[in-house]
Amino acid sequence: QSVLTQPPSVSAAPGQKVTISCSGSISNIGKGFVSWYQLIPGTAPKLLIYESSKRPSGIPDRFSGSKSGTSVTLAITGLQAGDEADYFCGTWDTSLSLWVFGGGTKLTVL
Amino acid sequence: QITLKESGPTLVKPTQTLTQTCTFSGFSLTSPGEGVAWFRQPPGKALEWLALIYWDDDRRYSPSLKSRLTITKDTSKNQVVLTLTNMDPVDTATYYCTHVRGTLFDFWGQGTPVTVSS
Fold it and tell me: A25, A70 in Cβ contact below 8 A?
């Protein structure tokens, strides 16, 4: 049981938009910033979004993040086959004193 | 360019100690604000943060694993070593090291799979 809650899977056709939600509580998402990571088996995980909505250099603007209260959302537009991956949200939990993550969402590009 | 690479055994027996080494380049663990963290991901499960060490030797551990974990750094070799004692099959996972700047895990290694089995 993960501290942050994500849908297990999402899917959409190439070119479409998909959103992945991540919900938490006042002690984690409600208190601070959230990061999103992309995991593709056999490759190094990639930081996609930090501070809930900022993109590191090199991450295309097809990826965007937003936050509202104790939830965050990752949006991916113009879906490409290469976007198929597992996506995790993560942040610091002030009550547990550790970094916590969602269970991950598997994105399938149909 | 920051790169990190994990190395260590891929198979350990129950009760043994796991020693994983993270060798990095592109930054120095003597520079203020820099750090290295370790995570793991059991098959089909979520990422789990394990430990972190900063440039000033400030060390943080996951509370649930603190009694079993040790993280150390060797700045002359650009390496960070994680040890996890008393390994159990539930510790089977892919272990990752990451670069930390402040509280941002911005560059990751490819990970090394570790299986715990007799």
Answer: yes
Do residues B64 and A100 touch, judged by C-beta distance below 8 A?
A: no
Q: Do A45 and B46 touch (CB under 8 A)?
A: no
The two structure tokens encoding residue A64: 């965007």
Neighbours of A81 (CB within 10 A): 8
Q: Is B46 on the interface with A (CB under 8 A)?
A: yes
Q: Which amino acid is at B112?
A: T
Per residue in A46-87, pLDDT tens? Answer: 999 999 999 999 999 999 999 999 999 999 999 999 999 999
Quick check: A87 and A39 in contact, CB under 8 A? yes
Q: Is A96 on the interface with B (CB under 8 A)?
A: yes
Pairing outcome for strands B112-116 and B11-12:
parallel
Average pLDDT of B45-51? 92
In sign, the C-alpha dihedral spanning A41, A66, A100, B98 is positive
- A87 and A104 in contact (C-beta within 8 Å)? yes
